[in-house]
Specification:
alpha/beta, Helicase, Ruva Protein, domain 3, 3 domains, Zinc Finger, Delta Prime, domain 3
């Protein structure tokens, strides 16, 4: 069985790590100077390199050929090879999510730490998702972190640092990992395509980078699905077969319907997406990101999205940004997290977003009771969500006052005006 793309191209040196220079530089300097800490805490989103750098650190401290003043592992000695293959008995990777109890910490970590390494220079414990440990397990681990044996190195990794006791955090050197920029992800994927000798359109790579939300590992997994199509030249039409049913074009179409004050089209589109298998909670989260980007575009921040969207999408975003007033976008943005949360818990997932869209468009008195800040969707306090409909209410007011020499524009859902028959 062939290795997954993210395993096959996992960085083998610190220099290969993508966009975590603040961590790489500090850890490398500690290795060069011989001042490696006894415990590290790596914090950050999934798929950004926490476990990768933990393994590189484990290799470097045990490398048999690494000289003083150097940081990179040789990847040739028996220690580097065994750690790389996962067969080294002195380097243990522990999934705290499946070993949460105090008994496992005592038997698998604390007792093992008492004994010197069998073949390597140091024993290394890489504890992934460490925030999942129970309170009693953390208490048992605390004593070892306070007075660690000289031959032991702990590397804790987590996506939720706020769940880790302060007593544990204070005894570790903490490093916060960043999401990888879309431009860097696209470049990394392009390099992989060259090595695999498979041609993939740049638009496909940009779309993968956008969908991965800063997680390089997720992007590499999606790329391996694209490779599975079997073509030597993969276009967007082909790649769309393996992408989840949640395209930015869907959000653009919905936002255009909202900006045109067309509630019937907006609701119809939303139900079509739901019927076609789109995860509405996921769709709403992506919509939230796009509305946020549109808001930043209004503030003059288009440059920061270079590489996140293709050129056509950037133009579309700019057009949509011109159609909305800023207070409408900010109120809409405040309400979207609640709609996303409700979509996950409702028997009708699209209902919360439907109601939010109607609040945006209707301009009814109900808006006075709408609160963008209320997670439960209850009554508001002061202005609440009434700002959402200000722009559209003004449009409706103008529609009531026809301009001179012009016929009044019929409102959405109303019957066409009957011709006037003057009696002579």
């Amino acid at each position: 069985m062939a290795d997954a793309i993210y395993r096959k191209y996992r960085p083998k040196t610190f220099a290969d790590v993508t966009d975590q220079s603040h961590v790489v530089t500090t850890v490398s300097n500690q290795l060069k100077s011989g001042s490696v800490s006894h415990a590290y805490l790596f914090v950050g989103p999934r798929g950004v390199g926490k476990t990768t750098i933990a393994r590189l650190l484990a290799k470097s401290v045990n490398c048999e050929k690494r000289k003083t003043g150097q940081a990179e592992p040789c990847n040739e000695c028996s220690a580097c090879v065994s750690i790389g293959s996962g067969s080294c008995l002195d380097v243990a990777e522990i999934d705290a999510a499946s070993h949460t109890g105090v008994d496992h910490v005592r038997e698998g970590i604390i007792e093992s730490a008492r004994f010197r390494p069998s073949s390597a220079k140091m024993k290394v414990f890489i504890i992934d998702e460490v925030h999942m440990l129970s309170a009693s397990a953390f208490n048992a681990l605390l004593k070892t972190l306070e007075e660690p044996p000289e031959h032991v190195l702990f590397i804790l990794a987590t996506t939720e640092a706020h769940k880790i006791p302060e007593t544990i955090i204070s005894r570790c050197q903490r490093f916060d990992f960043r999401r990888v920029p879309a431009e860097s992800i696209a470049k990394c994927l392009k390099d992989i395509c060259k090595l695999e000798k498979i041609e993939v359109d740049d638009d496909v790579l940009s779309e993968i980078a956008r969908r991965s939300d800063g997680a390089l590992r997720d992007a590499q997994s999606m790329l391996s699905q694209v490779f599975a199509l079997g073509s030597k030249k993969i276009t967007m039409d082909e790649a769309s077969l393996v992408f989840p049913a949640n395209d930015a074009k869907m959000q653009f179409a919905l936002l255009n319907a909202i900006s045109a004050n067309d509630s019937a089209l907006a609701i119809r589109l939303l139900n079509e997406y739901s019927d076609s298998g789109v995860d509405i909670a996921d769709f709403t989260e992506h919509l939230q990101n796009i509305v946020r980007d549109i808001l930043f575009i209004q503030l003059g921040g288009l440059e920061q999205f270079r590489g996140k969207y293709d050129s056509a999408s950037e133009k579309e975003l700019s057009k949509i940004a011109e159609k909305f007033e800023r207070n409408v976008l900010t109120s809409f943005l405040r309400a979207l997290p609640s709609a996303s949360k409700n979509a996950s818990n409702s028997a009708i997932p699209q209902l919360a977003l439907e109601l939010l869209i109607l609040d945006v468009l209707n301009g009814s008195s109900n808006n006075k009771n709408f609160s963008a800040d209320d997670d439960g969707g209850g009554p508001a306090n002061s202005s609440g969500g009434s700002d959402l409909s200000n722009q559209n209410a003004e449009k409706q007011e103008k529609q009531k006052k026809p301009e001179s020499n012009a016929n009044p524009r019929p409102r959405l859902g109303s019957a066409p005006a009957s011709p006037r028959l003057d009696r002579g």
